[in-house]
## 1
Amino acid sequence: MNTTSSPITVLFAGLPVSSDNFLPGISTVALVQTNARLMIFDTGPYAYRPILQGRLRKLGIDPGKVDTVILSHVHWDTAANADLFPNATVVLHEKELAYADASDSHDDETPAYVGRALRRLKLKPLSGEPELCSGVRVIELPGHTPGSIGLMVGNELLAGDALSCAMNAAAGEVRYLPSKNSSACGSLQKALASASVIYPGHDRPFRVGPPITYLEDYAIRIRFFTDPTGPDEEIRVGSFAAKSFASWPTD
Amino acid sequence: MKIDLLIPGLPAKADHFLFGICSLLLIRTAGRTILFDTGPFRIRQTLIRALKELGLAPAGVDTIFLTHLHWDHVENLDLFPHAEVLTPRTEFEYAAAPRPNDWGTPPYVREILRDMHVTLLPDQEQEIFPGVKTLLLPGHSVGLQGLVIDTGDACAVLASDALWSARDATRGVPDVAFFDPAKAQSSLDKALAAGDLFYPGHDRPFRLKNGVVQYLTQYRYELSFPFQPLGQSFGLGISTERNMSVENL
């Protein structure tokens, strides 16, 4: 975790994983806490739901106290849990809401029912780059979707999928999750020029640098079985800070 | 009467997300093309590809049998706006206001079903098409229903999550008794006694020979974890194939 006094707490660090036969959809979910406000930036895929509830509980966060949910965009892996926060106003770009409503023109990342699901909630569509509270401002980053937005928190940026991972930042172009929309590359450049620390939509936070430096490690564990009478197999994948071999593996 | 396995269920869990990859089946009988459950959004393109391999576009599916209204079984319903959706009345009514601690049933699932041609299945077992009977299997969810199908050479039990994986069969205890554990236990017992070929919710189809599981198919998934920003990636495979070659990863 980030040890500075950033108002941002990562609930789920995204990962730019890809697979042959399913979409991992491992997206970033973050909490933004200021003196007056309690906000959630993105809500992940439905597959996060019980784990998200558990992580909030561990942090002592009552979902009913969250006053604002900001949706960077309405893809299946970012907007599926916005309903978990019963008293929150859900902020999204007006172009994104129009996109969510237009279920006929959807791409492969947006279910046709997302607009109807969102319309049950207290929505606040916006345009431009309003300040939500002191030091917290919306930034327009269209391209990945018509109304993609990010959130500037001081000089840190929650970027959503306009800047989905550090590889895209290093390449200066949209390699992971490419978009047909020509404004995607401009939004990537705008994101990089706006902040010193970026929380990508599908990666760990990094310092823009140069050089680009990740702020956190990650680890993910997958359990499955092939023999129903046998034990679980467990795979652990991660990126871990260098440690001395003297104490490993006992630590 | 033909049952095709479109996607085998995957008995996997992660500490970061739920897989939710459930068994998706295609039943063709009596002039009907029936999709058994629709899966989570993340396998949408795989489902479309699997249908295509059988020569079908989504529009070729005219009927959907929806066992229960958990997220990982309903998220692709919108691919089939013209299909008749058969789903238990108990599930449909419950979904108007799911229990606050029921994270399996999306509170907006009725929005997913809105404007669809929904036919509600009563709380009683019946033959819905010749040789296709419903099986009441509550417990994993409030009113889950499966199917028993006489294929000619087997009596197939399409149990969905009442039989989460083959492990439920070897242990005799339901692994994911989500809603009502006592009912889930009797439903598991009932499903295992209802036939000789089993399609679990989150595992491959299997037969039981003297209590030993004999799987009928394999599965294989590949994952690529990039270690950025330099661009190297780490390949990882999950497979039941013994001869999986490492070079392909």
Note: Residues 117 and 243 of chain B are 45 Å apart (CA to CA).
## 2
Amino acid sequence: MLRKSAARCTCPEMAVIPITEFLCGFPILEITHFHVTIVTWKCYLDSSAFFRRQPRLGNIFVFRRQKEGCKKKLDVFNFMIQSNDMQSNWPEQNLQVIRTLMERSAVYRRALAPIMLMAGAVGTLAALAGWKLKLDQPLNFFRYWSAISVLVLVPAFLMVRRQALQAKEPVWSPPTRRVIQALLPACVVGFGLVLVMVLTLPSLDNLTQALTWIMIYGCGLHAAGFFMPRGIKLLGWIFIIGAGALVAWCLGMHVRLPPDSPHFVMGFFFGGLHLAYGIYLYFTEQKSNET
Amino acid sequence: MNPEPFHNLDRIIHEKGRMTIMSLLAASQELSFTEIRDTLGMTDGNLSVHIRTLQEAGYVGVTKTFRNRKPLTTCSLTRQGRKAFETYINLLGEIVKQSRAT
């Protein structure tokens, strides 16, 4: 096959090279007392026409000659075969490039509306329950909302798994992996930082705890938004700016919110905003799938 | 050689123009009509015919909006289109494997 390509080659670069001899199908450029120089073909993917194979001046290999007639030696032959394979696996490589590009561009859309609606409903109910139960101690507040986050994460995972199984697709797909990887640092930092604050700062109030959580969660959402529908990034910004504005308002106006207000703040952000985004997705997702 | 993968190739995608459109859209979330046209060097008429064929097959979604008071047509792969293209690529992979084996 390579010999044929060489014979039909019209490449101007190759035309000036005096090819007198072939070694295992590769044109020999030069044979000296010490070296055998051969040229292999390089095939490349033309973006405007996939799988078009165009011969082009490729890699030049220089072999040291051990003694006369070494070109027939087994090691050289093996190398030729390997080189030939390397050059001729271009279809697999091209297909792999397409698959990789597809994976990278895939947007995570799995069960997003149901997850948001569920998270919003749980967040709102949890805020009401927390206010009713009067969980005002910082450690209790931390434990309560940590438990609520687990309560949201478990059914969310089950929803994603169910939808993946129904679609006969892997649960741990590349978009899922990227979203988790983007969310994880913010979740770990948020959880760890608030835990350290609760354990080391005796004067910590629940509002600071809630706002820290909200802002870091917003950062996580924004990071994950690069692999999710566009609205997620905006939601992340609403969390960050909303919490930031509340901090600025409290500090600027010297306002002290009532002790049970952190539950309502959490309820508004984790409940209300998720619920609103879930409703928005519920009415727009179907439409976008149809287009 | 088993000819089955050849027969299973999606005829809608298995055309040079449509395959390049699908490949381009598969590698990006959405692209405007002009971006596709300029990248592939197609004419407006040729591209719109291919897009319509893909749209009728349910592989490509077309959204018409306005940007700076000018109409903007954006195209993206639908879930069905992405799946069909994945199947197409897998079939090509099978054909390549078969040709290696023979």
Note: The mean pLDDT of chain B is 86.
## 3
Amino acid sequence: MSKKDDLDPHDDDLVSSKAWDNTILMRLARYARPHARLFYGSFGVLAVLFALDMLGPWIWRHALDGPVHEAVEARAQDPAADVSGFVHSFWIWVGAYLGLVVISIYFRYLEVAQLNRTGQVVIADLRTRLFRHMQSLDLAFFDRRPTGALVTRVTSDVENLNEMFTSGLVVLLFDFVKVAGVLVFLFLLDWHLALVVLAGTPFLVGVSLIFRGGARRAHRSVRARLSRLNGYLQEVLQGIRVVQVFRREAAVSARFAQHLDGYLDANLKTIFLFALFFPVIDFVVSAIQGSTLWVGGLSIAGGHLSYGGFVQFWFYLALLVAPIRELGERYNILQSAFASAERIFDILDTHPTLEGKESSPPGFTTAPLAGHVRFEKVSFSYTAGSEVLHELSFEIRPGETVAVVGATGAGKSTLVNLLLRFYAPSHGRVTIDGQDLATLDPARLRRAIGLVLQEDFLFAGTVEENLVLERESVTDESLELALEASRADELIARLPGGLAHPVAERGATFSTGERQLLAIARALAGDPRIVVLDEATASVDSNTEAQIEAATRKLLEGRSALVIAHRLSTVRRADRILVLHRGKLREQGTHAELLAQDGIYARLHKLQFADATA
Amino acid sequence: MCLGRLLEPEGLLEFDGIDVKRIQVGELRAALGYVPQDSFLFSERYRDNIAFGCDAPLSDARLAELIELSCMREEVSHFPQGVETLVGERGVTLSGGQRQRTCIARALARDPRVLILDDALSAVDTETEAQLLANLRRAGQGRTVVVAAHRLSSVARAERILVLGRDGRVEAQGTHAELLARAGWYRETWQRQQAQQELSVL
């Protein structure tokens, strides 16, 4: 295994980003807008806290320049003077300050709670949106991307945005208000001193901002490497059997360590920048403080400034420096959030190409589909040059059952993929009730179709959740009817907990027959107009077989159905049988008609249903 | 799986007369070339995938030989960067049959004492399958080959065929000719698959 070039320019994880991107910011603001009230709340809390912060030093000044100063003056005139009166009014100021501190503590709690709540609400929303969007994308999208990288998008990339909404953007915006506010107060207090501070500020901002460029690059590289590390880990765990049999544990560990090294390097670069940043910024801050002491001392000596005024100024200076010192850190958060946002938008901007549009006149659109399916000269190829289906034409009238038979690779599954619009035909069109699938709302299409696959997917959850699948159309009654009709109710009755019985991942605890029965019940519960059924070939015991057959009959009753048939009973009952051979429709007719033709169907029949007729 | 000690069986399983439980796992696995059912490949360069199980780097000549043996020469020559092409999401997407053949080359690269094909020819077309099996026979003089398959053409030329029943018991065993001579699952399935084969070239 050789070391690959580390930063492939085509790498999806390294989308280029600008230092400050208004477009990204505006888009993020759109996602935040529904939660505007939370943001206003955050600003409110921050504003109160700022006012309290400004009030504290003001109290100090009045305590020092008021009672303390008067006591000092009195003692200077008469060393034996009674100062107990001053002490009394001094305590009032100290008490006021303590009260202020208590109120501040409460608002600091509110600050953290409110900001984090805001962030969590916004990102939960964004995560849901992103996940929903991912699910709508074409299968081809997932073919091209490592699952690990997609997981990183929904987890850590979105988490980065959380940090941005909480400690990044809101606080940053408010920091600007704070800096401006404090500067105004500094000038009101002593304009000489304020000019000194103002002269030092550009250095402070400069250091913070020079730092940002390096931090941005380092952060992007950290994220890209983390995403790659995740992808590798996921893949190796998937192929753990191969790794073990080939005794590659050590080599794979070395490769993992290599990825980890890259990640560590990137992190160290970030850390180095931080380590350098703080001493430099502290130096600038100390220089400003030193100048303040010098000019302030001269002002006090010259009688332009009181001690209390100087103390108030000193505290305000700290309030001014803190947000500027944090500017780099905030920028950092913003940068890493921009990079994450870009990758998230990259996914949100990938649109499903097969998405149909509702183009029928309003009023008609909400009418349930009758289920009249037509394939008109449909051709299809997954890869250019090799046609899987060739000029296929047939129809399924409402209520009809059409069975498709054919050898392996004849194109039966492709037919189903086209009807479900997982893929679009290369030529020709598929219509339902006369409407081209290309212009039909996919949600409406899939609502109308009940799908039963050979190996149907059961999710981890309860049996009920698996049957309902969050479809609004499935009510308690329709579920009950479906269970009764499919006789799956007998199966449910045997389960401890009934409908609440937990299903292991992929339904591992159910037998093949039981899974098939549940899949049929699941389709029935949606009361679909069109049924697509890929009959299972796996054999089950004769009792379950009879049950499945009965359930299938119920499912097909009165519905338009496209069945990839493996059961003789199904083909016999079908209104029409399509014989697919090498992507072409070769024969069409009822069971009896086709047998009489003594063509492909007759031979297939002998092959596939030999067991059943015996 | 049991042979590679990924699973621990009851009873006795011997390798060269030694109970596998008494052979070091590493040593045991070193003797095995395994082609998994799911034809799992890594998102690495094509050559890295083939060299995956090798301790030393593969020479270009050996690599070419393995590609030839696994009937992938034609396909690899069409990859954008040949054997340097990345496999998987960021490179070429291989078809099921191509993946299976690549996995076979990967297993052969270790020149194993025992080659295990776990239903590893299912996606390879019958013509290529015949070529591949002939190559394996030619290249594997003295090598033990275990082929698990649903398609009987994969095993027809084996020295011995075991027919496993649904309960995991050996229902019948013998050569292809012996099994065909008897009525039973093997003969029925063979005839059906032959007919299906005939039908697919119609």
Note: Chain A is about 65% helix and 10% strand.
## 4
Amino acid sequence: MSDPINAIRIWLQGLLLSWGLSDGVVAVILAVIGVVALSTFVLVMDILLVWVERKVVARFQDRLGPNRVGPFGLIQPIADVIKLLLKEDIIPRGADKFVYNLAPILALATVLLLWAVLPLAPTIFGTDLSVGVLYIVAVGAISTLGIIMAGWSSNNKYALLGAFRTVAQLVSYEVPMVIAMLVPVILARSMGLNDIVQSQSIWFIVMAPVAALIVLITSIAELGRAPFDLIEAESEIVAGFHIEYTGMKFGLFYAGELLHALTVGAIVSTLFLGGWRGPGAETYPILGVFYFMVKAFFLYWVIMWIKYSLPRIRIDHMLNFNWKFLTPLSLIVLVITAVLDKLLPRSNMWIYAIGMLIANLLIIWVTLQILRSRARRERQRVAQPGPIATPELSMAVLPSSNPRQQTTPPSNPA
Amino acid sequence: MTFAQLIFIILAAMTLGSAFMVVTSRNLVHSALWLILALFGVACFFVFLNASFLAVAQVVIYIGAISILLIFAIMLTRRVAQDTAPPITGNWFWALVTSVLLFGVLVWMVSLWHGFQSTAPALSRNVDPLRQLGQALVSPNAYAIPFEVASVLLLAALIGSIIVAWEKRLGRG
């Protein structure tokens, strides 16, 4: 009784075989049932997420949130779905119909694809892919494509601007994300997510806190959530790529975003927080599903916490933060982890973990020192009085006299 | 005809059909999207051949990087949707001759390979192709030198792009 999913699977297999079907057909039927069951479970949870998101936002903003329909407003998402289904479906003039209709499907489907490799419990998982980490990156690339298709096919300037920003942001943040995701791969000696969870007798967040933080930050950027929500910045480009979408097509984007946030929580908890690991999870796999969901929802809550606490960052800061801070930092972490992995003894996991932790703390300390000195220099630069336009100064701009003082170009305020 | 052959034919038709649409479609963005479908079909073939790493790498590199860069370049082109130049130019005859010749030579070269007659040996369960690939890339007996040369080339390209994009300091030029 400890593993109901596999018990049902074995019972069904026996039943189908007793009907006289061949092995291959039974395997295909079971796979189809598995896919339908997993995606239904995830999508039903997605409906619940609308309620969770609205309730949590309300608490962050000192409101009550939905509380009229059903107990604690739990039926509210159902009402929302009915409302979205009844809305008129508008296709803008000049839109590319096929691409326009395909984009929201891609946006939600790619998030569902991610659940194929996430191990919910030691015995409950979609598939044990040997290249699981790379698969997550590949699916993320396809989701970028969905947003670009939506932005381009809407025949709307704001939507196109949103698509441009998407490319700049998502493609850039993929670089440090992939590099930081290699750190748990080194620690586990495997790219398969099942192996990564299996080898976390000590959670990887202890051995690689910096990599965990980088993966979380870059994942939020991939989500396009605040503070990285330049893709749909309301005050600048209205709603970005989904500006023209109405009714359930908009609903698919919205549901995709919420589900993606939870999925990011699930991925980070798989890579760094031990996935389904917890007391008694090995003997009772159904407990593993519970632990996994608790960790995923905790990280989802952290993502919401960040979203509703921080303002949107400017586009040049966003790119500078990625290329001048996250990418070098993730490269340094990767190199140090790889070198230490060879130097430290793997036979004693505690010494190994403590060595990794000390190295990470040193990296954090050095990074903070560098940032502090940079900030001090920046404060001094800002504190200096800027040049005031006078006849003497405008003369001095000419290279004949005083060449050092006015060398700062006026076009570069950063 | 087995089930595997049926899937292979469907995949091959999808890949070739979308490759054909890449060159015939009037709209550049549509061409790029068809190209993505064709590349995805190739990734499906890798899955079919149990080469999961190559399949995922195909999606990451060709769909995630190259195609998105292509679409980005197309979207930055002015009035791309209104462009209605005829898809066939005056050079169609020589293009046809060259491509038929090239295709013929390729088919001839490939048909000389003896591997077509033999069936592939089944992979044993405890062989991890990913691990073997990784070790082959760093082993001096296998691909260490080509791998390093490619890395140096990419590094040179990266540094070159930084130099090209370098903001010129005032007073230097």
Note: The mean pLDDT of chain A is 82.
